[in-house]
Amino acid sequence: MMSEMLLVGNRTHLYGVAQGWGQLPNHISYGYTHGVCVDAHDNVYVFNTSKDAVIVFDRDGHFLKSWGSQFEGGAHGFYLHRDDDGQEFFYMTDVERGLMVKTTLDGEVLLEVGAPDRPDLYDAERCYIPTDVCVAPNGDIYVADGYGQSHVHQYDAEGSYIRTFGGKGSGPGRVTEPHGISINLRGAEPEVYVADRRNHRIQAFTLDGEHKYFVDHDLDLPCSFYFYGDEIYIPDLNSRVTILDNDNRLITHIGEDQQAYKQDGWPNLAKSYYRPDKFSSPHGVCVDSRGDVYVVEWISDGRVTKLIRQA
């Protein structure tokens, strides 16, 4: 007799845990799993710090291929952008090499952008360590220097520098560890959303880098974003995934474990601690065309969870 599926969520957002989803071939293993994306065919791409930095599955969890050895050790931000012609591209950040890289879905490198030529911001002591990237509707690229000097740098589609905004702090327009970045298209005009992680909030900017407002409730070390319809899915590093509605109000936390991040040795805990329906250190999230959710966690040998939408 089959055991009942483990469920997480609430009445309107209920998910079943797809235990055992995404088995790796024997010759491949994960490093830290930092990012996850789905393409137009619901293929799932996991970005991790192993030599197989991009690992590709179909929606049922069958392994398809891997690539990206140049990202070994540095794989971090992972963003899939679909242009007006329907073509899809990855934009990725490498924290070891200090690069933003644009590729095809098969890994062909199309653009590389390093640190901006800003000697007033960067020198031997003030490092540039880009953690995430996103793309606006007009093709402009925004790169978050989350582990460096807490700036956001804007480029045009060809990688030419436009401007910098942010900078370390807690007031309007200032950010501390801008770990994730994305474009909010749910309102009257596009906005740049920054996961202002160490301030435990989201900060919204205009496309020109002007502060608009904060979202500073129901978040606990927000890492990044995934927009699905009118909703936003946020991996809170402190052991849960948060879903907000179109007004940025809480719908639910899924997989919450408020004890996990308080454990000695976190995030790399004994395997006996982890439970399939609880998260420990969510770092990336995405949602496929059917509403199923994929979560990757900041754990040294990786962790990937698929949640199947029930309601």
TrEMBL record:
Signal peptide annotation: none
Gene3D superfamilies: TolB, C-terminal domain
Keywords noted in UniProt: Glycoprotein, Repeat, Signal
Keyword Iron-sulfur: no
Database matches in PROSITE patterns: NHL
InterPro entries given in the database record: 6-blade_b-propeller_TolB-like, NHL_repeat
Annotated NHL repeat ranges: 130-158, 162-208
Protein name: 6-bladed beta-propeller
Organism: Alicyclobacillus fastidiosus
Lineage: Bacteria, Bacillati, Bacillota, Bacilli, Bacillales
